[in-house]
Amino acid sequence: MHLFKTFLASHSLKYFYTAVTAGTDFPVFTIVGLVDDEQFMYYDSNTKKAIPKTEWIKENEGADYWNYWSQGSVSAQQTFKANIATAMQRFNQTQGVHTFQKRFGCDWDDETGATGGFEQFGYEGEDFLFYDLKNQRYIAPVQQAFHTALRWNHNPAELERWKQYLTQECVEDLKKYVSYGRSTLERKVAPEVSLLQKDSSSPVTCHVTGFFPRGVMVTWQRNRQDLDVDVELGETMPNEDGTFQTKSHLRVKPEDWKSQEYTCTVQHKSLEQDIILPVTEENINKDLKTCYNPDGSSPPMGVIIGCVVGALLLALIAIGGVYVWKKRSSGESH
Questions:
Q1: For the whole prediction, is pTM greater than 0.85?
Q2: Cα–Cα distance between 108 and 177 in angstroms, integer?
Q3: Within a 10 A sphere around the Cβ of 89, how many other Cβ atoms?
C-alpha cells in the first residue's frame, strides 16, 4: 500500500512573521506567505511593500490586495519591534542579534473537508507561546511567556477572534488560493536520489532532492526489514527552483553494508513505484562537492542546487523567515 494517499488532497496556508534585531545585513522585519509550502507573497521592512511571488497570485489579485497587505505589514512591523524588545528584556538580554517569530495558518483536505489551524510564537528559534485551538487558550512552554499567556487568556473576545480566523477566514482564503494556482500547486515532480559518504567512518546519507509536493518518506532497510536505530532524518527544505530536498543519515560500518543488504527507499506521490537505492560501493559518492544520478546520467539541476548551493540558499531563506523556526503573527504586543 502506498503511504501517500493522505497527501493527495491536503492543502495548507502558512504565514511567517520574523523580527530581527538591528545591526545585520538583513531586514529587521519580514513576512512570508506560503500555500502548500510554496511562497506566494513577501514583505520586508526595507521596501515596506508586499509583493507577489507566484504568477497565479499576481494574475488574480490587484492593487487593493497588495496595498492592504502593505499597510497591515507596516503596522505589524511596529508591533514586532516592541515584541522583540520585550522578549529581550524578559530573557535579560541587552545586546546581540535576536529573532522573534510568529507562524500561523490552516490546512484543508478537499476530499474529506477536514480543516485545522495553528498559531505559534518563537524566540531565538525555540518555542515561546502557542494557541491551543481546541481549548481556546494560550500555552506558555517557557517561564518568560507566562505573563503573556495569562493576559491573553483573560481576553475571551480575542480568543474567539482567533478561532474564527483560523477555522473560517483562513480556510476561505486557502480555498481561494488553491483555485487560483491549482495547476501549479497540484503538480508532481519526481525526486532524484543519491547516496553520499564523506569517508568510511561517516554516516551514509540518502540525499533526496528536486521533488514536489513537499511530502516525502525516506526509510532505510537491512535485508528488507525497516531500520529505526542509527537513523537520523533531516528536515525537508526548499530548493531555489520551488522544489524540495531532504536527507536521511544511516550510521553503519562498511563491513556491515558490504556483507548485508542495505537500501534507502523513497516514497513520493509523483512516483508510480518507490525508488529503492542499494547501499553499494558503486552507488556511494564520496565526493561531496558533486552529487550524481545513480543511473549514470548528468546531475540534474535539483541535485546540483542541493549539493553545491543548498546550504547558502537555505540560510538566506531562513533569515527571510521561512524556516528559521515555525511560528505565526497577529499584531498583539506583549
A1: no
A2: 12
A3: 12
**Mean of the pLDDT values across residues 5-32?**
83
CA 29/CA 100 separation, integer angstroms: 10
C-alpha cell, 107: 490546512
Residue 198 grid cell: 564523506
Cβ(220)–Cβ(208) below 8 Å: no
Map out the domains of the chain as residue ranges: 8-185, 192-318
Number of residues assigned to the chain: 334
What residues does 85 pair with on adjacent strands? Answer: none
Q: Max Cα separation, the chain?
A: 65
DSSP state of 177: H
CATH number of 192-318: 2.60.40.10
Q: Which residues pair with 2 in a beta bridge?
A: none
Q: What is the CATH class of 8-185? A: alpha beta
pLDDT digits (tens, 9 = 90+) for 133-171: 999 999 999 999 999 999 999 999 999 999 999 999 999
Measured CA angle at 268 (ends 266, 269), to 5 deg: 160
Cis ω on the peptide bond leading into residue 213 (within 30° of 0)? Answer: yes
- Which segments of the chain are extended strands (E)? 10-20, 29-35, 38-44, 50-52, 99-109, 115-123, 126-132, 137-139, 192-196, 204-211, 217-222, 225-227, 231-233, 237-238, 244-250, 262-267, 275-278, 284-285
Give yes or no for a contact between 118 and 330, defined as CB atoms under 8 angstroms apart: no
Instruction: Detail the DSSP E strand segments found in 50-189.
Output: 50-52, 99-109, 115-123, 126-132, 137-139
CA 266 to CA 152: how far, in whole Å? 44
Distances (CA, A) of 11 to 4, 16, 177, 182, 282: 14, 17, 10, 10, 39
273 and 180 Cβ atoms separated by less than 8 Å: no
